[in-house]
Amino acid sequence: MALAMGCAELNAFLRRAFLQIADQVRVDSADEGQLVARLAVDDQHLRPGGTVSGPAMFALADVGIYLAILSRIGEVPLAVTTNASIDFMRKPEAGRDLLAECRILKLGRVLAVGDALIRSDGMRDPVARCSMTYSIPPRDR
């Protein structure tokens, strides 16, 4: 199955539709099996103790899985998160971007389910794992 949107189209969509995060998140790669989203970590993402905050990791997973869905179905901006679960497993490495390796587990007409493994760039062990479900609106809206 060919992608409906590739990296360039997804990154352009982010810049157009999500100005609040367009300079922080980008798609590094996308194919039929996986999308990799990158969070350019800086001071605004840190919590006391110098580690990346949980909300920043959650946002990366949410945006990454959302973009993985759009890569398959095309630009459907009103697809929304309906369920989410995240496990924080270890402290992210200081001074490194975060990468979310996102997969679509089920893609239906109305619902999509995906997961993301988040790692500090260059590190093997994941720092978080997230599972999310999205509602896909009818195309005639």
TrEMBL record:
InterPro entries given for it? ACOT13, HotDog_dom_sf, PAAI_dom, Thioestr_dom
Listed Pfam families? 4HBT
Per UniProt, the keywords (alphabetical) are:
Hydrolase
Q: Which domain of life is it from?
A: Bacteria
For the keyword Transit peptide, the answer is: no
State the Gene Ontology terms under molecular function: fatty acyl-CoA hydrolase activity
What positions does the domain Thioesterase occupy? 49-124
Family label: Belongs to the thioesterase PaaI family.
Q: What is this protein called?
A: Thioesterase
Please name the source species: Paracoccus halophilus
